[in-house]
Amino acid sequence: MKKLSLLIVLLMAASVSVFAQKNEVKVNESVVKWTGTKIGGSHYGEIELESGYFEFKNEQIVGGEVVMDMNSITVTDIEDAGYNQKLVGHLKSDDFFGVEKFSKSKFVVSKATKFSNGSAKVSGELTIKGKTESLSFDVKKDGDRYTAQLKVDRSKYDVRYGSNSFFDNLGDKAIGDIFTLDITLRM
C-alpha cells in the first residue's frame, strides 16, 4: 500500500509539469501607454490594467488575458488642466471609447510561438467597445518583463469620431484610425 501511495504521489508530481503554469501580471508595476495621431500632431497618455495573467508551458505562452480599465484613461501630453480634462472626457464619451457602457477592454491570447532570442509572436482577440477582432504582435521578454507594441485600427471597434473611414471632408480635422498601445508587463 505504501508503494502504491508513493507511486500515486510521484505520478501526480510528474503530471503537474505537463500542465500550464499560470503567472499573474503585477498590475501596479505594469504600464499601458497609448498614442493617437491627427493631422499635424498626436496625443498620448496611459490606461491602467485591471488584471492579467499568462499561462506558460515549457517557457512558451499558451494562454492568458489582459484587462484594461478604460475609466482610467489619461492624457499626459497636455499640461493645461482644463483642456486635458476636456480631452479625457471626450475619449471616455461615446464618440470614442464609451466607457460608461464599455468600461473594460481586453486581450485574450489564442496562441504564441516559442520565444527565440527573447522574442515571440502572440496572437489573440482584442475587445474594445464590445467589438472583438484578431490581432498578432511581437512580444519581447527580458527576465520578468514583457513588452509589446500593438497597432490598433480603431475603425474596426466602432470608434468613429474624426475617422476618414466613416466621414468625408474632414480635412485637417481628421484623426488617424491607427493608434498605438505600448505595453510593459511585469510578472
Automatic annotation (TrEMBL):
Glycoprotein is among the record's keywords: no
InterPro entries in the cross-refs: Lipid/polyisoprenoid-bd_YceI, TTHA0802/YceI-like_sf
Residue ranges of every copy of the Lipid/polyisoprenoid-binding YceI-like domain listed in the record: 24-186
Signal sequence region: 1-20
Keyword field contains Chloroplast: no
Pfam families hit by this protein: YceI
Keyword annotations of the record: Signal
Coiled-coil region: none
PANTHER family reported in the protein's UniProt record: PROTEIN YCEI
The name this protein goes by in its record: YceI family protein
